[in-house]
Amino acid sequence: MNFVSRGFSRRRSVPEELRDRLPPGQYVERGFPVLTAGPTPRVDMAEWRFRIDGMVGQQREWSWEEFAGLPFEDVPCDIHCVTKWSKLGTSFRGVSVDTLLEGVEPQGGYAMAFAYGGYTTNLPLADLMGGRAWVVTEHEGEPLPSEHGGPARLLVPHLYFWKSAKWVAGLRVLDHDEPGFWEQNGYHNRGDPWKEERYWND
Amino acid sequence: MERLTPVEQRAPGRWQIGTVAAIRQETPHVKTFRIELPMWVAHLPGQHYDVRLTAPDGYQAQRSYSVASSPLDEGSVELTIDRLADGEVSPYFHDVLVEGDQVEVRGPFASYFVWRGESPVLLLGGGSGIVPLMAILRHRRRTMPELPMRLVYSVRNADDVIYADELGDETLLTFTREAPGGWAGHTGRIDAALLDGTTDTSGVAFVCGSNGFVETASRLVLDAGYDPRSVRTERFGPT
Questions:
Q1: Mean pLDDT, residues B8-16
Q2: What is the pTM of this model?
Q3: A91, A112, B98, B146: which is deepest, by most CB within 10 A?
């Protein structure tokens, strides 16, 4: 921390009441940037399924209509992208992963979220439970746009946003941890923004 | 192939203090900064570096910028930076930094939007989305100039053309707002007719630009028959 950039001073001011909500190294973004490694996949709603499989006592699967019958809740939250922007005070609506896991009887402590288009991201099951993770289908009162992961994406706002898999198709319960897509490509295994866990050796 | 694809390091380096060795004005609002690094490692074409600015009061701002240079340029990286009027880091680079200044950087990062020598290659760039594509184009010129590679580059007007003197026969340029006087080439936004003849679905496509550009361009290459797994995208800026 001894290095000082000659002639640099803060240009973006963060309102005092929001300062505690901005993790280190992040800035406030009012828009909602799109970051995706590949093209936006075309997801056919008639074919859409969300499933929980892997090391489970009881595998579960929902069609779009069945999923829509689950208890939804509003999720006001802040989201933090590893590319440095944070969006504060946004909201989603979806089904808690706790609800989805009811009756599944997980036999392992880890999960791999998988998505239409082939994306994967790994999480400890503990990060998906306890009212901290959802499968959401609405953003700020509107159906989730496809470029933001619609029809449904995972939402895990306490971790960097690459963990909130777009176009999520399911969760595979594992008895061991395995790196997902970005985790294999240099990004941190857990991704806690408050610890600034961006890359492998953070 | 050793020269083409450097030893791959997936974990990024540590923060280090580089020295600005050269600054080049590319367009009225784009400059390239050549930064010499004490702990340089070869990047893969397409990767980016993080930059961290620290104010005297300890306040820090970080941003990511794509590397424009070939990894054959040992000891330094070139970052091409678009000046965003309401930005915090890019105006500092443009308005404050001079040659000889020091800047804290870390990288290279993210081994997905990278070229590892696959062929043939279609590059689709919108505006400053050209930057990581130029690293790919430059590296191919210096390692395998015969490797089939096409660049389709969409810009608003002549003032927006970065690296103008390096664009050769492989490049198809289109002006979306105002073509220069006497321009006989393409105008208007990227579309299927423009891509006709540039696509080869046995290869890979790299698409970089604004979100709108990437959505349109990646949809076009999928419609042309590319496997979605062969289409890598990178998006700049807010929606």
A1: 73
A2: 0.85
A3: A112
Residues B45 and B130 in one domain: no
Tally of domains in chain B: 2
pLDDT value for A1: 54
Q: Do B211 and A7 touch (CB under 8 A)?
A: no
Chain B residues near residue A25 by CB distance under 8 angstroms: 52, 60, 62
**A30 to chain B, closest Cα gap in Å:** 9
Chain A: closest CA distance from residue B175 (Å) = 24
In this structure, the answer to whether residues B131 and B152 fall within a common structural domain is yes
Question: What pLDDT, on a 0 to 100 scale, did the predictor assign at position A124?
Answer: 98
Best probe of the A interface among B98, B233, B236, by most A CBs < 10 A, is B233
State which residues form the domain around B59: 16-109
Considering the domain architecture, whether residues B145 and B67 belong to the same structural domain is answered as no
Specify whether domain A52-195 bears CATH 3.90.420.10. Answer: yes
Q: What is the pLDDT of residue B200?
A: 93
Q: What pLDDT, on a 0 to 100 scale, did the predictor assign at position B239? A: 36
Residues of B in contact with A84 (CB under 8 A): 62-64
Which residue of B51, B83, B109 is the best one to mutate when testing the A interface, meaning the one whose CB has the most A CBs within 10 A? B109
Is residue B48 within a helix (H) or strand (E), and if so which, with residue range? strand B48-54
Confidence check: pLDDT of B62 > 70: yes
Shared domain for B150 and B232, answered yes or no, is: yes
* Cα separation values, B52 from A121, B65, B71, Å: 27, 11, 22
How far apart, in whole angstroms, are the C-alpha atoms of residue B234 and residue B232? 7
Q: Do A10 and B61 touch (CB under 8 A)?
A: yes
Q: Provide the CB-side half-sphere exposure for B64 (13 A, CA).
A: 21
Question: In chain B, which ranges are E strands?
Answer: 16-27, 30-36, 48-54, 60-66, 76-82, 102-109, 121-126, 149-157, 171-178, 186-187, 204-210, 231-236
Contacts of A184 in chain B (CB under 8 A): 10
Is residue B83 within 8 Å of B162, Cβ to Cβ? Answer: no
Nearest neighbour of A200 by CB, restricted to B11, B55, B112: B11
Are B102 and B127 found together in one domain?
Answer: no
- The stretches in chain A having pLDDT less than 70 are 1
Residue B6, pLDDT score = 56
Is residue B20 in a domain? yes
- Nearest CA of chain B to the CA of A40: how many Å? 7
Domain co-membership, B90 together with B136: no
- Give the pairing type, strands B204-210 and B186-187: unpaired
Which of chain B's residues have a Cβ under 8 Å away from the Cβ of A162? none
